[in-house]
Specification:
400 residues; alpha+beta; 6-stranded antiparallel barrel; 5-stranded antiparallel sheet; 9 helices; signal; V8-like Glu-specific endopeptidase; TAT_signal; Peptidase_S1_PA; Peptidase_S1_PA_chymotrypsin
Length: 400
């Protein structure tokens, strides 16, 4: 049976912002209500779904995407009939220009979202020689804290990135960011490169979709059995109609980070599964991106948000860690990355890191790699290369 979804409506009279609490920069995602605003039935998102078989639903392939598939010897009609599940490595679209992600209405229904496995954050061993002379001492583990619910009040810009890999449905985390060339109407999402592209040995993942404030009330697996779809995806599903990641990740990224780890970031341009306003207008918030690559002394503290899915977590709830950042590098020849203590596991990959700048919090990195014992996280410093990628995405696709 075909599945349908009505896009979530923005909550009227409410804006969600990322703010700092106190001079020590203990980061918190908070919502500020406008005068006279209160939760009511009319403030809640409207979303409906019906069940459909895996891969069912209507597939919309624009002519330009169908043409791109044909260029690589892929039949667009077969793709519609489930051919997207065929991961022929000889035809795996890998180059930056090859991204194809046609909408499949109803594919990411609630039970399929729950079945998605963590895309293991790229793991590095605690090799004493790794980054010798470049990395700071290992930070003490910081136990991840559960974000307050409902997420639409406390962390609306944060959500989950769902996608299909050769191993099946997978999940990462992401953040709604501002589009400087289209103020107030951003459709941009920041995540990790390895959440959209397999790196040097693979290509683009498929059916990439962003769900902001996933599982809004932090319900358990049992509670979600009969949950209102609007509680699972309060702002609906947002399909990536374009994705950009760094050439360094595409060429050198690997399961252990590799030479692409310091460039493990990506920007998605998304659109609602069915109609609606921009992502920023719908969610009511988007975050600025800080491309100044601040030092640890400048940043003072950083906070990472995400949906860890590997044990002891299950991917259903949002967590955060706040710590004083240090430096980390896989090799003296590679740029240093930011690193904080944090016990979040796979599934938190791509989740935004925030720091305070000029009195407000901004996105400064994203979760990329961590050790096998899940005691810390590292993320790329966002400098000129990251800003160029972001600007190109904004100028080329932002107005669509």
């Amino acid at each position: 049976m075909r599945s349908t979804r009505t896009p979530a409506a923005p909550r009227r009279g409410r804006r969600t912002v990322l703010a700092a609490t106190g001079l020590v920069a203990a980061l918190a995602l908070t919502a500020t209500a406008c005068a006279g605003s209160a939760d009511s039935a009319s403030d809640k998102p409207d979303a409906t779904t019906s069940q459909a078989a895996d891969g069912g639903g209507k597939v919309r392939i624009p002519a330009e995407l169908a043409g791109k598939l044909e260029e690589h010897g892929i039949d667009a009609d077969r793709w519609k009939d489930g051919g997207w599940k065929d991961w022929d490595k000889d035809k795996w679209l890998s180059d930056a220009k090859d991204f194809v992600n046609p909408v499949i209405e109803g594919l990411w229904k609630p039970d399929r979202m729950q079945s998605a496995k963590e895309a293991d954050k790229t793991v590095t061993t605690k090799d004493a020689s790794a980054g010798q002379g470049v990395s700071d001492p290992d930070p003490a583990p910081v136990r991840a804290q559960a974000e307050k619910t409902p997420y639409h009040r406390n962390a609306a810009p944060v959500g989950k990135v769902f996608f299909d890999s050769p191993d099946g449905p997978a999940v990462c985390s992401g953040t709604v960011v501002k589009d400087v060339n289209h103020p107030g109407k951003s459709n941009l999402v920041w995540t990790a490169g390895h959440c959209v592209h397999a790196g040097g040995d693979g290509g683009w993942y498929r059916n990439i979709t962003f769900v902001p404030a996933y599982n809004d009330y932090g319900k358990s697996e049992a509670e979600l059995t009969n949950a209102n779809p609007a509680e699972i995806a309060p702002y609906g599903n947002w399909w990536a109609d374009w994705a950009s990641t760094s050439n360094q990740w595409i060429k050198g990224g690997s399961e252990t980070g590799g030479e692409g780890a310091a460039y493990d970031y990506a920007v998605l341009h998304v659109k609602p599964e069915r109609g609606g306003k921009s992502l920023e207008e719908t969610v009511g918030a988007a975050l600025d991106v800080d491309f100044s690559a601040p030092s640890a002394a400048e940043a003072r503290k950083m906070g990472a948000w995400g949906y860890p899915a590997a044990p002891p977590y299950n991917g259903l709830k949002m967590f955060k860690c706040v710590d004083v950042p240090g430096r980390f590098s896989l090799s003296p020849s590679l740029p240093t990355m930011h690193r904080i203590g944090c016990t979040m596991t796979g599934g938190s990959s791509g989740g935004g890191w925030f720091r305070v700048r000029d009195g407000k919090s901004v996105l400064v990195s994203n979760t990329s790699i961590g050790p096998a014992d899940n005691s810390w996280l590292a993320g790329p410093q966002l400098g000129r290369d990251a800003e160029a990628l972001y600007q190109n995405m904004s100028k080329t696709y932002g107005g669509r």
